[in-house]
Amino acid sequence: MTPATLLAWLRLLGAPSVGAATARRLVQALGSAEAALQAPEATLLELAGPAATRGLRATQEDLGTRLKRIQQWLDGAPTQRHVLGWDEATYPELLRQSPDAPPLLFAQGALPALATPCLAIVGSRRCTPAGKETAHRFAKALSEAGITIVSGLALGIDAAAHEGALAGQATGGAPTIAVVGTGLDRVYPARHKPLAHQIAADGLLLSELPPGAPPLAPHFPRRNRIIAGLSLGTLVVEADLQSGSLITARLALEANRDVMAIPGSIHNPQSRGCHQLIKQGALLVEDPAEVLDNLGWSGRAPDVARSTAPAMDAAPPAAQDLLQWVGHDPVDLDTLCLRSGRPAAELLVELLTLELEGHLCRHEDGRVVRAG
């Protein structure tokens, strides 16, 4: 995008009474942001109404400041940073079709990722270890099959999905796209700075917010519509009933995209959102191959389609009974003592061994669950 075109977009979007929908309508009808600004008053009145027409003729005192900040950000890495207009060929086509598509997108990284088939993987920030492992495994396998993984760089499932996709890309798979709720000169949460830098280097960071935009609460639900709009479908791994990932799933349905969900334990609050989606018609999936089948994807098959958790028969014979007592629902030490009739000190040693060998996952509250 040239500086002149960027200035025209900023002026168009910054005009009083001109929102994103009006801006898109003017550009679609007149051909460009520059043409919309130069259109006769009668044309603007017909297309946008009197309030927007007055707004387009008003002076914007902060226009130069906004342009300068964006240009400085672009100049910091001119081959990696981009501004995409809704009317440009580089703008992702699936997102352009969305009724609330952002007029401008700020991008850092490999733009070709936007032209690849994408799948959103989303879920709870407060995920279980098993949920995190599942998100990583699915993302890696789907990346290896040629699907670009889109998520929101949040804690929990989002981060696991990005990391799994990066692992898949390292073996020749597709990249990952992180859609964020800040300007691209900031990283939220801050602990994800290394992850964001890796995505910028190997995949793509994307935002509708200009450089300098802080992590305000309203930004994140709006970010979800971009995640859904970019993607052929949305896969929800773990989500409670209040999770923002259910917003992404709803937006995907409204855009006539596929919604899939992974079931979990009825005792896990983080599975209730997935179960609700399944009741409402989302496709229940248990392995990445089912996701590919649902998308009708004919690309290469993933190297790993099913669970990579250690097989139960790989555990020492003495530990196999303990794995049976643990089961697939999180369980605490006292319950295991009651189930097995064995002393806590003895169980602690075996539980630690099984955890180190990858047969168990441990929750933050100390409960354990079978891996996979």
Topology overview:
Elements: H1 3-14, H2 20-30, H3 33-38, H4 41-48, H5 50-57, H6 63-76, E1 81-85, H7 93-96, E2 104-109, E3 118-122, H8 129-144, E4 148-151, H9 157-170, E5 176-179, H10 193-202, E6 204-207, H11 219-230, E7 233-236, H12 245-254, E8 258-261, H13 272-279, E9 283-284, H14 288-295, H15 317-326, H16 333-340, H17 344-356, E10 360-362, E11 368-370
Parallel strand pairs: 3-4, 3-7, 4-5, 5-6, 7-8, 8-9
Antiparallel strand pairs: 1-2, 2-6, 10-11
Helix pairs in contact: 1-6, 4-5, 8-9, 8-14, 9-10, 11-12
Protein name: DNA-protecting protein DprA
Domain DprA winged helix: 308-366
Family: Belongs to the DprA/Smf family.
Provide the descriptors you would attach to this structure in a database record.
372 residues; alpha/beta; Rossmann fold; Arc Repressor Mutant, subunit A; two-stranded antiparallel sheet; 11 strands; 46% helix; 12% strand
Tell me what the structure shows.
The protein is built from 17 helices and eleven strands. It has a nine-stranded mixed beta sheet, sandwiched between helices. It has a two-stranded antiparallel sheet with strand order 10-11. About 45% of the residues lie in helices and about 10% in strands. It has helices at about 5-15, 20-30, 35-40, 40-50, 50-55, 65-75, 95, 130-145, 155-170, 195-200, 220-230, 245-255, 270-280, 290-295, 315-325, 335-340, 345-355; strands at about 80-85, 105-110, 120, 150, 175-180, 205, 235, 260, 285, 360, 370. Residues about 300-310 have low confidence and may be disordered. Helix 4 (about 40-50) crosses helix 5, helix 9 (about 155-170) packs parallel to helix 10 and helix 11 (about 220-230) packs across helix 12 (about 245-255). The protein is elongated, with a radius of gyration of 24 Å. It is an alpha/beta fold. The chain folds into three domains: about 5-90, no CATH class; about 110-295, Rossmann fold, CATH 3.40.50.450; about 310-370, Winged helix-like DNA-binding domain superfamily/Winged helix DNA-binding domain (Arc Repressor Mutant, subunit A, Orthogonal Bundle), CATH 1.10.10.10.
